[in-house]
From TrEMBL, chain A:
GO molecular function: A-type (transient outward) potassium channel activity
Signal peptide: 1-16
Cellular component, GO, one term: voltage-gated potassium channel complex
Membrane topology: Multi-pass membrane protein
GO BP of this protein: action potential; potassium ion export across plasma membrane; protein homooligomerization
Species the sequence originates in: Carassius auratus
Domain of life: Eukaryota
Name the record gives this protein: A-type voltage-gated potassium channel KCND1
Automatic annotation (TrEMBL), chain B:
Stored CDD domains: EFh
Keyword list, A-Z: Calcium, Cell membrane, Cytoplasm, Ion channel, Ion transport, Membrane, Metal-binding, Peroxisome, Phosphoprotein, Potassium, Potassium channel, Potassium transport, Repeat, Transport, Voltage-gated channel
Gene that this polypeptide is encoded by: kcnip4a
The UniProt record lists the keyword Cell division: no
GO CC list: peroxisome; voltage-gated potassium channel complex
PANTHER family recorded: CALCIUM BINDING PROTEINS (PTHR23055), KV CHANNEL-INTERACTING PROTEIN 4 (PTHR23055:SF30)
Organism expressing this protein natively: Carassius auratus
Protein name: Kv channel-interacting protein 4
Origin: domain of life: Eukaryota
Major location (coarse): membrane
Membrane topology value: Peripheral membrane protein
Length: 637, 242
């Protein structure tokens, strides 16, 4: 129950009078407001700053420090106030949580100080309301990263017993760890550069042949370049194989982007080796050489910025896609328009719409080569419109991409996003647990309340003790739900047990043994049975049984004990009840009163179970503390 | 403050018209015609959004504490506590039906309390203006918590009589009982069956409808309840709620 509406509980209880004329059963006794003191102001002195609030306000959340009796530890007798030696600024937010039901995170506050205060006052951070939750999570994440970075820096010292493979992998991933790794890092970098420069220089014309034609250096010094290429590819191959060997998960390594780049970089050479100097395939061979330029991407291992750029482009895929789409749209529109505008003019370069594409692209990106220009007036008008719109269309998505890049560069978010998703799930699940806790609080407390009451011998102090464990608010709320149960003659059960019960009733179909019953008269030949094998305390059965009777004000049903004995034989496999305890109970009290409501403690009700035919969904599993055991319980209606 | 003002405006008009008989009919007709035309011309005037805005702009201040003290059976302190709780949930000073349903539903997390809350809202909203002000709230509570048994039974009858015609028919009772069962939700023991509400209605009518005419009048109701000691006892259950 939301504590914010605790003030409306009297209204809800008063409205329950609307059920009374409809109910057929007597209502349970209301929890009495014994210590009904007037609502008083209490003073909370936090490091000298005095806060005052109603006592009831703090009682709204009984599982926090201020809402429970834990605050009595801080009570100062002389000044009659509660003194906390904590930060008064943070306490403001905490007290506001009690007042409004919403916990806010102040932005100026340090995240770890805030966390500490929340932990001290027993408030879980998941309750932070949505308006402040994003901020809180972001700050927390940054803090955690910072701590982890510090940890990593300390952790980089070599661990004593790492296998050779692990050392190698660490050396590859973090070149700073050892000198060998650094050397390796620089050597590979050098060879990547060499390889790229070689590829470039290969095509530069140098020297003349007797037939007055420039030839590129590659053809002039074929062997030299071939040697350079071979050397680089050797180095790259060795490096790749070493990484493959050292990788903790080879499959994952082979799937990673960097390894694919490595493979693509060295493959053309090997393919080139395999293929002979055949004329047909030489064209394809030349194409393959283009792939050698991918070696430049190997630099991204060496440069963090390059990796971030790549990641930015990946994450801005939607913006890039939008840019591309809008450009395409505009290009097609303008190309069509220009083509039809220039159709009339003679010797026009705009021979077809695809031919006009080139003009449109060049104009929209404000390049303006000038190889195609419109000549008609209409063409010029549309051409100018085209160039103006080009500026707009390109200028719009670009800042988004830029800001994305800067954001990512500053926050380096890739792993964090994954972590954030996990945390969001954890938060939702925690909130769901507390929420479902509240909705199933009533059946739970029924069981717990009965548990406790059945274990006590019912003296006055223990009653009071029982009451103190659940706050007055809760007990009143539970009484209200209890009245509703009485009005409708049905009980609330846990969802889990409802499903259990449903399955069990679906599974089994008892033969009818008892005489027919009508719910009105309420006399049946059935009774509750609820057994677990573990605890058998037949002696306490009578005590608890009578106590149940007193506490519950149940509609008492008198059952002939004799009737029950023959039913022992018709036991279903679900009931693991032993005979002795059952017979003992029956003998001890000639008339057995059945309890309608779940009696959790196994020994308390040792009744035999036998269902009645008219109501097929018969034995429902009662709410149990231990769901593992099979239980059959029938309510006598 | 706009809502109270509006009410007095409409209250004034009829009295004005009653003075001048000759002119009044024409004026009345004109007024009605004009109003009708306006409402027809701008049909989307009463949007729910606008309703919400109106309601949220309304800041209803309750009557003075002394007045309420005189009209209800609560003491000053009790009224103070009640108002604090009321204002906390409804800062604007009035509850509309949706907020009412929300608040009531929080007490019954396992079921659907909206239908019963709707009936409750109609029972509390005695002047049927779509919102429950603090006065309505406190008057209702005064009857329920501090009233005589007669008054409480009267209130209950009012709650059950959905169309306020003085008779409880079987359909009305079925609606009420279904809404009560709805609050139980799905996970009940024993599992709720389709005909359980209907059976409950039958039992109720058997008990209450003395002359077997198919409806329960207020006298039958009060008579019957006063003779039933369960009901009498349960009426006293919530004496010490505040």
């Amino acid at each position: 129950m939301a504590a914010g509406v605790a003030a409306w509980l009297p209204f809800a209880r008063a409205a329950a009078i609307g059920w009374m004329p409809v109910a057929n059963l007597p209502m349970p006794v209301a929890p009495s407001n014994k210590n009904k003191h007037q609502d008083e102001l209490i003073i909370l002195n936090v490091s000298g700053r005095r806060f005052q609030t109603w006592r009831n306000t703090l009682d709204r959340y009984p599982d926090t420090l201020l809402g429970s009796s834990e605050k009595e530890f801080f009570f100062n007798e002389e000044t009659r106030e509660y003194f906390f030696d904590r930060d008064p600024d943070v306490f403001r937010s905490i007290l506001n949580f009690y007042r409004t039901g919403k916990l806010h995170y102040p932005r100026y506050e340090c995240i770890s100080a805030y966390d500490e205060e929340l932990a001290f006052f027993g408030i879980i951070p998941e309750i932070i309301s949505d308006c402040c939750y994003e901020e809180y999570k972001d700050r927390k994440r940054e803090n955690v990263e910072r701590l982890m970075d510090d940890l990593e820096d300390n952790k980089d010292s070599k661990l004593p017993n790492m296998t050779f493979r692990e050392t190698m992998w660490r050396a590859f991933e973090n070149p700073h760890t050892s000198t060998m790794a650094l050397v390796f890092y620089y050597v590979t970098g050098f060879f990547i550069a060499i390889s790229v420069i070689t590829n470039v220089v290969e095509t530069v014309p140098c020297g003349y042949m007797p037939n007055q034609r420039d030839i590129p250096c590659g053809e002039r010094y074929t062997e030299a370049f071939f040697c350079m290429d071979t050397a680089c590819v050797m180095i790259f191959t060795v490096e790749y194989l070493m990484r493959l060997f050292a990788a903790p998960s080879r499959y994952r390594f082979m799937r990673s982007v960097m390894s694919i780049i490595d493979v693509v970089a060295i493959l053309p050479y090997y393919i080139g080796l395999v293929m002979t100097n055949n004329e047909d395939v030489s064209g394809a061979f030349v194409t393959l050489r283009v792939f050698r330029v991918f070696r430049i991407f190997k630099f991204s291992r060496h440069s963090q910025g390059l990796r971030i750029l790549g990641y930015t482009l990946k994450s801005c895929a939607s913006e890039l896609g939008f840019l591309l789409f809008s450009l395409t749209m505009a290009i097609i529109i303008f190309a069509t328009v220009m083509f039809y505008a220039e159709k009339g003019s003679s010797s026009s370069k705009f021979t077809s719409i695809p031919a006009s594409f080139w003009y449109t692209i060049v104009t929209m990106t404000t390049l303006g080569y000038g190889d195609m220009v419109p000549k008609t007036i209409a063409g010029k008008i549309f051409g100018s419109i085209c160039s103006l719109s080009g500026v707009l269309v390109i200028a719009l998505p670009v800042p988004v991409i830029v800001s994305n890049f800067s954001r990512i560069y500053h926050q380096n978010q890739r792993a964090d996003k994954r972590r954030a998703q996990k945390v969001q799930k954890a938060r939702l699940s925690r909130m769901r647990i507390t929420k479902s806790g509240s909705s199933s609080a009533f059946p739970h407390s029924k069981r717990n309340g009965l548990n406790q009451s059945l274990e006590l011998t019912g003296s006055l102090e223990e009653d009071q003790q029982l009451k103190k464990t659940t706050s007055l608010l809760e007990s009143q709320h539970h009484h209200l739900l209890h009245c509703l149960e009485k009005t409708t003659n049905h009980e609330f059960v846990d969802e889990r047990l409802y499903e259990q019960g449903y399955l069990q009733t679906a599974l089994q179909n008892f033969p009818s043994q008892s005489p027919s019953l009508s719910s009105e008269e309420g006399i049946t030949g059935t009774c509750c049975s609820q057994r677990t094998k573990k605890s058998m305390q037949p002696l306490s059965a009578t005590h608890t049984h009578s106590h149940t009777h007193n506490l519950q004000e149940l509609s008492a049903l008198h059952i002939q004990c004799g009737e029950q004995q023959p039913l022992n034989t018709s036991r279903s496999s679900l009931n693991l009840m032993s005979d002795e305890s059952g017979s003992l109970n029956c003998k001890s009290s000639g008339l057995v009163t059945t309890a309608i409501i779940s009696i959790p403690t196994p020994p308390s009700n040792n009744y035999r179970a036998s269902p009645d035919a008219p109501t097929p969904p018969n034995p429902d599993a009662p709410p149990l503390p231990n769901p593992g055991t099979d239980v059959v319980k029938i309510s006598a209606l | 403050m706009s809502a109270p003002v509006k009410r007095t405006q409409w209250d004034e008009d009829p009295t004005l018209f009653r003075k001048d008989h000759g002119l009044s009919k024409k004026v009345l007709l004109n007024c009605c015609l004009v109003r009708w035309i306006i409402s027809w011309a701008s049909p989307n005037k009463k949007d729910s959004v606008e309703d919400e805005l109106e309601l949220s702009a309304v800041r209803h201040r309750p009557e003075a504490l002394e007045l309420l003290e005189a009209q209800t059976r609560f003491s000053r302190k009790e009224l103070q506590i009640l108002y604090r709780g009321f204002k906390n949930e409804c800062p604007s000073g009035v509850v509309n039906e949706d907020t009412f349903k929300e608040i009531y539903a929080q007490f019954f997390p396992q079921g659907d309390a909206s239908t019963y809350a709707h009936f409750l809202f109609n029972a509390f909203d005695t002047d049927h203006n779509g919102s429950v002000s603090f006065e309505d709230f406190v008057m209702g509570l005064s009857i329920l918590l501090r009233g005589t048994v007669q008054e409480k039974l009267n209130w209950a009858f009012n709650l059950y009589d959905i169309n306020k015609d003085g008779y409880i028919t079987k359909e009305e009772m079925l609606d009420i009982i279904k809404s009560i069962y709805d609050m139980m939700g799905k996970c009940t023991y024993p599992i709720l069956k389709e005909e359980t509400p209907r059976q409950h209605v039958e039992i109720f009518f058997q008990k209450m409808d003395k002359n077997r005419d198919g409806v329960v009048t207020i006298d039958e109701f009060i008579d019957c309840c006063q003779n039933d000691e369960n009901i009498m006892r349960s009426m006293q259950l919530f004496e010490n709620v505040i």
